[in-house]
Amino acid sequence: MTLHIRTPLLHSLPMSARLGKTVWLKLEALQPSGSFKLRGVGHACLTHADRGARRFVSSSGGNAGVAVAYCGRMLRIPVTVVVPETTSARALELLRLEGAEVIVHGQSWAEANALAQSMLDEHTAFIHPFDDPLLWTGHASLVDEVAEAGVRPDAVVLSVGGGGLLSGVAEGMHRQGWDDVPIVAAETHGTASLARSLEAEAVVELPAVTGIATSLAAKRPATEAVAWSRRRPIASVEVSDREAVVAALQLLTDHRLLVEPACGAALAAVEKHPAALADAKEILIVVCGGVVATLAQLQEWEGTLT
Ligand SMILES: *Cc1c(COP(=O)(O)O)cnc(C)c1O
What we know:
alpha/beta, Rossmann fold, 12 helices, 16% strand, TrpB-like_PALP, Ser/Thr_Dehydratase
């Protein structure tokens, strides 16, 4: 049993024509919770449910929290999400629509997370947004689906926040014997904790994360994500917030699909960093999705960001 669905793999004619390459889009935006997070979170929730968990707790006001809430609803297991006061009304509404108990606490994520941690007991499972081997194993399933479709790309492009998606995709690619296929890891300038870590060849914590790509806003990447850079080729690229927004709007024009700037970062990387993909004829982009941004907000950002 899985809680995620098998997503379409789309040959993007508009992107292929612009880039002069074959571009494949893995449409994780179509997961029922709106992002790839459901793969890993679903696997983690099923595993904890098997071990007897009677409640799930999350401290994510973004796509991870929505995925945990979705899984709880499907498994009929209560979910509590603790989020800081800065969480948008839209995110609160999405969590409540999924039936989660939402507790708004503290000025920062750290305060909300501390309360969430204090709620744990032997029957309660905490679901981390990116740093857990159960998540990576769940995310890896997206690579299996691409391989089963008969596609073997020359490069895989994805967005990086805490590096859970990266770790899972690398795990899946390892299983498929794709360790020689480079991963292009996209971040925005204000969230480039993996870029700084790869430069330093060690996990680097940013003093602060900035910008609109809030789903990428981990101050430090998971150790596992940095460890993969010693086992396989990973190229790090950065884009601006504006480039991420424009790429998200371009996807809407090309394929009628709305995603967050966090996802736009991977799409922008392909258009703005051709050198990272010079050797690749076939490119796979993980269209990771995101439920928090709206069309009105993307258009407002496009008008105001420079
Ligand atoms: C969580 C998320 C990311 C980043 O994933 P990590 O596993 O934290 O690197 C990127 N895009 C979207 C839409 C997300 O929800």
